[in-house]
Specification:
The chain is mainly α and 149 residues long. It has eight helices and no strands. The longest helix has 24 residues, at 103-126. Residues 10-78 form the Carboxymuconolactone decarboxylase-like domain.
């Protein structure tokens, strides 16, 4: 049942108004914030396939600012939604809207958060091993790097 819910939400977010690259910006920002090693590795491949440049993918993987102002606003907003558990302030919304995003896209980010919450938490609980296609994009969460894991 959980897999069905994830598949349905993933499919719906794929139909959002965000471009394929923007969808991956949102997903990677959430995955990294939630320290999901499996999803960060997998979405790094999907981001490359969606046309995100390597430097943008690396910046997302390290929670660093993106050179593209629109992508950076999207990254910051997605992280804020997760960090603040949806309690974003008017300044956060204004910064999001200033780069051309809409009110409907606010809710599309919420949809992505719901999608990734299911997968990130599931992968944390089950310790999902990386698939072979993710070998080159393996990622270690910062808290595990600091612990020498």
């Amino acid at each position: 049942m959980t897999l069905q819910a994830y598949d349905a939400l993933f499919s719906l977010f794929g139909q959002s108004s965000f471009t394929a690259a923007e969808q991956q910006v949102v997903y990677l920002a959430i995955n990294v914030f939630n320290a999901c090693e499996y999803c960060t590795a997998g979405h790094s491949v999907l981001a490359r396939n969606a046309g995100l440049p390597a430097d943008a993918i690396e910046a997302l993987r390290e929670s660093q600012p993106l050179a593209d102002p629109r992508h950076e606003a999207l990254r910051r907003f997605a992280e804020t939604v997760v960090r603040e558990r949806g309690r974003v302030g008017e300044e956060d919304l204004a910064a999001f809207f200033e780069t051309g995003f809409s009110r409907a896209q606010v809710l599309e980010v919420v949809l992505a958060v719901a999608t990734k919450t299911i997968s990130n938490y599931t992968n944390h609980i089950t310790h999902t091993p990386n698939d072979t296609f993710m070998a080159a994009t393996a990622w270690t969460a910062p808290h595990r790097r600091a612990a020498g894991a």
